[in-house]
């Protein structure tokens, strides 16, 4: 009999898992989604200008090509529309329990006891397998700046946009200057009377060569056999061949720097502003911003880039070391609690082990998917599977392939866990590969813990990850009955 599967989260990962199970004829699964709709990060991040800087035809499932993309780089509503299309086409929407927030998952020696809260009522159900697909960027990070609660105006995080608050004619403060800020600043600047951008650290920025796909191009993608596949493959290989070496400090690192500096020089004529926007760390150490509208917005006369450190929030604005900058609206584009994987879900494995305690020095997982002592629990977009150069959807599909390859053994032999020696070997390989990557050098980023351990990114090529996840999982796992730790 097919194992029963609890999928936690209905974003790109959870939907992919649900669809693959459905296509394999497995109906014994439930998707828990704490929100009222599907889409994960693409439901949450609805700020003006939200979109993806990975091309549409690559930022989609390989099994569900889509000829309807209207732009080379998709805007958030189109991505959400794509996910809804997939959920409906593969008939998984009715398997999603909306408004059900998973609080705890406890392995009882044989099955997972999953506790969720729905309409205020707590309920515990048993599943053979748990697939955690809550993403890395699902919990907003709000800074701890003194006086935040004293602010008399309206404030919100970029991922919790207040669409009822009209910005027309406002004095707006945006705190942060990462990818989210870069996308929302141009449309906000259009509406606001004045905008102050509080930049703590400048980012490397390269152009986004966006373009529309007109009706003819869309028809061609729909009708010309192999065109979409070939286009997708070309974008994938291009990113792999040019961007990956830049992050591994290879041949294209200098080119990336040159391209970013040329973009800065072309778009920001004022040398003083240019100097403040020039990073002092290598490109790629923090996620490179890919945007063509960001710098022009910063050069507007009604926009100031403020680099003086913030001291506190006052009732009427943001106080820096140089004085008060008045604001009636504050947008915190301050990122996510990205290294706290799975939090706040309490996960308890064999022998009562707490996953949070196991991960107190930084999250880890074999292939980013499995953790010893947590049998039959699989992670999608888990530790060390984020990319700075290619599509996460590709990584998610690799992970789902691996989970699908594990399920027949679970069905035949009962719970399986990854062997500690496979985990240790994985960590050693990861550390060795990490040493040549650019992420460690002289920058703070959401890729790493406060102690500096890179827990989020995959340090290899995605082609290698695909190969590793496509291997038979047999040797890396053992049944829990054979495990001394299950005693
Ligand atoms: P982020 O890259 O983590 O940026 C957070 C920003 O807030 C940084 O500029 C940071 O400054 C600043 N900040 C944080 N705490 C602060 C404080 N106490 N005082 C002042 N400034 C503070 O977050 P994000 O922009 O939301 O982007 C997160 C990731 O989401 C991106 O890197 C990307 O992977 C993904 N994303 C992707 C797209 C896309 O097009 N594919 C679009 C948006 C987001 P420091 O740099 O000094 O820490």
Structure commentary:
- The protein has helices at residues 12-23, 41-44, 76-89, 179-191, 215-223, 227-247, 253-267, 271-276, 294-298, 355-358, 392-413, 420-434, 462-470, and strands spanning 5-8, 29-33, 96-98, 100-107, 112-118, 121-127, 129-132, 154-157, 171-175, 194-198, 205-206, 289-290, 303-306, 310-314, 317-320, 323-326, 329-332, 346-348, 377-379, 416-418, 477-479.
- The protein has two domains: 5-139 and 337-479, 3-Layer(bba) Sandwich (FAD/NAD(P)-binding domain), CATH 3.50.50; 141-203 and 288-335, 3-Layer(bba) Sandwich (FAD/NAD(P)-binding domain).
- 31% of the residues lie in helices and 18% in strands.
- It has 487 residues and is an alpha/beta fold.
- The strands form six sheets. Strands 3-2-1-7-19 form a five-stranded parallel sheet, covered by helices on one side. A five-stranded parallel sheet has the order 8-17-9-10-13, covered by helices on one side.
- It contains 13 helices and 21 strands.
- The longest helix has 22 residues, at 392-413.
- NADP nicotinamide-adenine-dinucleotide phosphate is lined by residues 51-54, 137, 143, 145, 158, 175-181, 183, 198, 200-201, 287, 310, 333-335, 444, 446.
- Pfam families: FMO-like.
- Belongs to the FAD-binding monooxygenase family.
- Keywords: FAD, Flavoprotein, Monooxygenase, Oxidoreductase.
- GO terms for molecular function: monooxygenase activity.
- It comes from Nonomuraea spiralis.
């Amino acid at each position: 009999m097919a194992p029963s599967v609890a999928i936690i989260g209905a974003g790109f990962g959870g939907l992919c898992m649900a669809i693959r199970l459905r296509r394999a004829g497995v109906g014994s699964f439930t998707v828990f989604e704490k929100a009222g709709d599907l889409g994960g990060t693409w439901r949450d991040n609805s700020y003006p200008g939200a979109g993806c800087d990975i091309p549409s035809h690559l930022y989609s499932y390989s099994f569900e090509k889509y000829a309807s993309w209207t732009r080379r780089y998709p805007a958030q509503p189109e991505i959400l529309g794509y996910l809804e299309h997939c959920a409906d086409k593969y008939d998984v929407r009715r398997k999603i329990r909306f408004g059900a927030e998973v609080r705890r998952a406890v392995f009882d020696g044989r099955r997972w006891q999953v506790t969720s809260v729905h309409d205020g009522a707590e309920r515990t159900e048993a599943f053979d397998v748990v697939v955690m697909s809550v993403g890395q960027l699902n919990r907003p990070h709000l800074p701890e700046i003194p006086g935040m609660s004293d602010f008399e105006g309206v404030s919100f995080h970029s991922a919790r946009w207040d669409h009822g608050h009209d910005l027309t004619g406002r004095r707006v403060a945006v705190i942060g200057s990462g990818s989210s800020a870069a996308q929302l600043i141009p449309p906000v600047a259009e509406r606001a009377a004045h905008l102050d951008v509080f930049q703590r650290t400048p980012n490397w920025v390269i152009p986004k060569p966006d373009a529309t796909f007109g009706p003819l191009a869309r028809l061609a993608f729909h009708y010309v056999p192999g065109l979409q596949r070939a286009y997708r493959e070309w974008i994938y290989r291009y990113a792999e061949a040019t961007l990956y070496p830049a992050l591994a400090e290879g041949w294209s690192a200098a080119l990336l720097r040159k391209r970013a500096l040329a973009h800065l020089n072309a778009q920001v004529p004022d040398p003083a502003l240019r100097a403040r926007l020039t990073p002092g760390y290598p490109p790629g150490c923090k996620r490179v911003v890919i945007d063509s509208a960001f710098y022009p917005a910063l050069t507007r006369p009604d926009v100031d880039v403020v680099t003086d450190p913030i001291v506190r929030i006052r009732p009427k604005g943001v106080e820096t070391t140089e004085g008060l900058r008045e604001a009636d609206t504050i947008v915190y584009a301050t990122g996510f609690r990205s290294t706290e994987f799975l939090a706040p879900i309490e996960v308890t494995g064999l022998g009562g082990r707490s996953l949070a305690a196991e991960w107190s020095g930084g999250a880890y997982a074999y292939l980013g998917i499995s953790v010893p002592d947590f049998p039959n629990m699989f992670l999608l977009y888990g530790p060390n599977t984020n990319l700075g150069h290619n599509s996460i959807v590709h990584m998610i599909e690799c992970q789902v392939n691996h989970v699908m390859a594990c399920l027949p053994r679970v069905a035949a032999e009962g719970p399986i866990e990854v062997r500690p020696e496979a985990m240790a070997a994985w960590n050693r390989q990861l550390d060795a590969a990490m040493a040549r990557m650019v992420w460690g050098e002289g920058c703070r980023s959401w890729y790493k813990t406060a102690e500096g351990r890179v827990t989020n990114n995959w340090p290899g090529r995605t082609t290698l990850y695909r190969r590793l996840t496509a291997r038979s999982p047999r040797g890396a796992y053992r049944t829990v009955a054979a495990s001394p730790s299950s005693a």
